[in-house]
Description:
The complex is a heterodimer of chains A (450) and B (326).
Chain A: E1 4-12, E2 18-23, E3 26-30, H1 31-39, E4 44-48, E5 53-56, E6 58-63, H2 76-85, E7 88-93, H3 104-117, E8 121-124, H4 140-145, E9 152-153, H5 163-172, E10 179-182, E11 195-196, H6 199-204, E12 208-209, H7 211-228, E13 232-234, H8 240-251, E14 256-260, H9 262-266, H10 288-299, E15 305-306, H11 335-344, H12 351-365, E16 383-393, E17 412-422, E18 425-429, E19 432-433
Parallel strand pairs in A: 1-4, 1-5, 6-7, 7-8, 9-10, 10-13, 11-12, 13-14, 14-15
Antiparallel strand pairs in A: 1-2, 2-3, 5-16, 16-17, 17-18, 18-19
Helix pairs in contact in A: 2-3, 5-7, 7-8, 8-10
Chain B: H1 12-28, E1 43-48, H2 53-65, E2 69-74, H3 86-95, E3 100-105, H4 110-116, E4 123-129, H5 135-149, E5 167-171, H6 178-189, E6 193-197, E7 213-215, H7 218-225, E8 229-232, H8 251-258, H9 262-266, E9 273-275, H10 288-291, H11 298-317
Helix pairs in contact in B: 1-5, 1-11, 2-11, 5-6, 5-11
Amino acid sequence: MTTTWWLRGVRPLGGDATDVLVVDGVVAALGAEAAAQAAARDDVRVLEGAGHVLLPGLVDLHTHLREPGREDTETVASGTRAAAVGGFTAVHAMANTTPTQDTAGVVEQVWRLGRAAGWCDVHPVGAVTVGLEGERLAELGAMADSAARVRVFSDDGRCVHDPVVMRRALEYVKAFDGVVAQHAQEPRLTEGAQMHEGVVSAELGLAGWPAVAEEAVVARDVLLAEHVGSRLHVCHVSTAGSVEIVRWAKSRGIDVTAEVTPHHLLLTDESARGYDPHFKVNPPLRTQADVDAVRAGLADGTIDVVATDHAPHAREDKDCEWAAAAMGMTGLETVLSVVQQTMVDTGRMTWADVARVLSEAPARIGRVEDQGRPLAVGEPANLVVVDPAARRVVVPEEQATASRNSPLRGRELPGRVVATFLRGRATVLDGRPVDDPDRPGVAAGAAVGA
Amino acid sequence: MKHLLSVADLTREDAVRILDTAAQMAATQEREIKKLPTLRGRTVVNLFFEDSTRTRISFETAAKRLSADVINFSAKGSSVSKGESLKDTALTLQAMGADAVVIRHQASGAPHTLATAGWTRGAVVNAGDGMHQHPTQALLDAYTLRRHLVGDGGRADVYGRDLEGARVVLVGDVLHSRVARSNVGLLHTLGAEVVLVAPPTLVPVGAGAWPARVSYDLDATLAQVRPDAVMMLRVQRERMSSAGGGFFPSPLEYARRYGLDARRLAALPDHAVVLHPGPMNRGLEITADAADSPRSVIVEQVANGVAVRMAVLYLLLAGRNDGSAA
Lengths: 450, 326
């Protein structure tokens, strides 16, 4: 059924060059054994590794696919195609769709759309509360028991700010080993907020989003998680103070994990000076001290994962004055390059660390069992081949995502995804998505009628 | 100078040239025939997304005194109130051939976006954007201060001069004030020393980086600084309500601690002047005793506003088509 692939001379986790044989969607052999078995077969396709780095397929804990509701900005098909181009074999689709992913019916629909498109696995995130309103728990159990097997619950875009609702959610999801992923934002402290509150906001006259509005909620939530013995995940940590709180919580043995976005690893609030809404995002871009802190936290393991918070928006929602613009930026197709630039090329992390923060840890947090696995014989062949020596300039119009709101337009970034394999099937080859010639938007070889 | 978006775009030389040009404009306004032919055939659009009768009238008067055609486009009763975007409004005005767009907008940065997004080829003049900037207000304040504080009160000897060494105290709602941000920047550029006085709730986080000292005590500041000028900022009464942010407990408490009244007026040096950008809340940030005193130059600020805006439009538009630098 699937092609047999011989990946020749790739460097697993950036180590020594070796061969990998992929048969029937699993890693069948490594090293000399792979070369020997490949030579004995006549159905083998060869991918010349040329010293490229081999990683487990990337797993995103935080993706906005916008379907159902805003198919003008992204669909499950276009977003997962972009994800494959970025090296992903699984994404978690955030719940703030229209209608909201707060019922088993909607999460199953999103899950099925992902299967039909065939670019990567789609794990829908369930809303914590009905309609993201923060008042009543959604039917978390029904979503967990559905075909989508939801394990991550989040009202992302909004904060579960009511402490009682948050406590109940943390407790309730223990029944099915779920996790609440909190968008930490104290709503009263951030009414009308436009950007990080500090020197730049004071000068630009934009209403401030203070760091304390994030940190106060993170602090409360880790204490709640400790009290009820639950698992907590903190979305898009953006401040030095949040890193400190998570570090402290982990040192106490609290079961908390945290993510950072590529834009918070790279950009600061100085970007707002031109009032270009492509730099408007929630939580906002912070200061250089915060960027340094999240980088250090990622390197020392305080922050467990890098998650994209890929947030496609329509042109008209970014082609306007700052206050009128939507918050959010795309990131699926650039995240690996940003992590390489900020963490690997600076010597802070190895490629094994990259595999940890972009594949193993997010799969573990999301309880995705067949992703983020070791590069070993018998494991599912969810793989990505990266050329770290390549350089490229970001041109949003050339990206696979249906939206153009990348903050990195015109920037030169290191590294390029050469190929992505989903259970042995190539979704990306030579950096380009492998489309089914007969089914628009669908990956070649995707199961028919899935 | 292609646009006037922020005082940060102005060097000392730019600012002094605008003030000098304004002085020349003011001189023409004492003639019987006030109208100059300078901008005949040019179109100036007043694009006001926020109500501001006094600023709009000031720009309109300035443009008309220079013989420009003036189109007033206000958000109320226009397509803007039906949800038209800034972009489409700008493209419409461009299609009608606006040589300059004077924009007042509630969103900080909207004039910057208008000037840089490629929607209009005209010169953009910021007439106040959100909490960001109001550069012609700062220029008219600087012009007024120069008239009173520099030289011997005659006109000619102020040409070319800045405000080196002048001590100016700004009092009030600094947090929400584009007037404060513009004045801090321009007064610093012109060499003046600025002290901001406000309740701590109305000082922006991050103001420590500004070229100004911050105090929470008006009486102590007036006694220590011995200011040459006191500039009172408008305070909206609704700022005290919890819905408005709860920035201070009551108007009475605000007036007691930060209002300019007869007692504080008497504590000022004899030569000090009192400014207010208007409209005033009499009884809140300023009492009638202070507003109507001989020290008050508040009405003169209005007249100076026309001269300064004439200068800005002239420098932006005159000679723009023949390629010479304006």
